[in-house]
UniProtKB/TrEMBL annotation:
<dbReference type="InterPro" id="IPR036397">
    <property type="entry name" value="RNaseH_sf"/>
</dbReference>
<protein>
    <recommendedName>
        <fullName>Transposable element Tc3 transposase</fullName>
    </recommendedName>
</protein>
<dbReference type="GO" id="GO:0003676">
    <property type="term" value="F:nucleic acid binding"/>
</dbReference>
Amino acid sequence: MVFTPEQDAFILVAHFRSGTRNPDGTWSYSLQSCIDQFTEAFPDANVGYQTFANHKGVLVHRFETKNCICKGKTTGRKTVLTEEVTEDIQHRLEQSPNKSIRKLSAQTGLSVGSCHKALQKVLHMHPYKVSVVHELLPPDFERRINNCQWFNNNLNDDALLGLTFFTDEAWFHLSGYVNSQNYRTWATENPHSFVETSLHPIEVGVWVAISRRRIIGPIFFHDTVNAERYRTNILQPFFEQLHDDECQYGYFQQDGATAHTAGSTLRFLQEVYDDRIISQGLWPPRSPDLTAPDFFLFGHLKNNVFKNRLHTIDELQQPITHEIENITPYTLQRVFDNMKRRVNMCIANEGNHFQHLL
């Protein structure tokens, strides 16, 4: 039955008229009293008990939440998202999961908004960002497994990880890159905007060493790192900050870059670390997902350092230093707990990428 506005108003008045105050101050309302009043006022209306009860409940809720009993505005159009249409959309995306909503709209004849509603509200599908990872070569899988097994046998101890440093370097650029295809200026007339970029990007290199206990660095550099610069400008300042227990018991990790694995560099490292060096031969190539500077620190720095516009190298180095100094011991502990989990995931996934399993 369709109730008229006059009947709706009468039902609401009858509802409150049937109310009685309880001893505790609350109110109770009689559904039967409302029905009797409605039947007396509209004797020709043929309405069932449950239909009346449901309709009264809707009216009272609408009045209490919106302070009126009128219905909200509707477009009056029937939905185009029938079961057949949504099944067609689902089939198309199963065949081509990277399809854009605009292309889906063109293929189905639906509006972009309808396609978006079908995906999220009906099919409960959501867009997910694709992660870019290093390409692994066939020999890498076994090397990654061997390294992870060695880690579990030799380094999987919180106290020892507090003495062991994992190291790497990264370049931080003062000015970002502008993609002219995605960059727009909205105006009533063409402002002929342009962006000046340096022929030679202004950048600074950052080297860090991170253990479960603390971080040594950042050590900044401005030129390409060769073996001599690595020893003189990075390793020597690093050695000067080591504690006795770190020199005596800890390990030192580095990747297989040429400057790191030159004979003169390895001999220099052995003066402090003897045979406790994790480098080429043991450390697997193309594995930034296993070392804390890469999977945590550099990403953390780049997410926070560039929140404000920077103009000089000094302005770039200051927030890098500040962010590193503000990393707490608790954060470092969580990072190395994460490293242990990554090691085990790598083994379980036979040396393949495992980020999606974390």
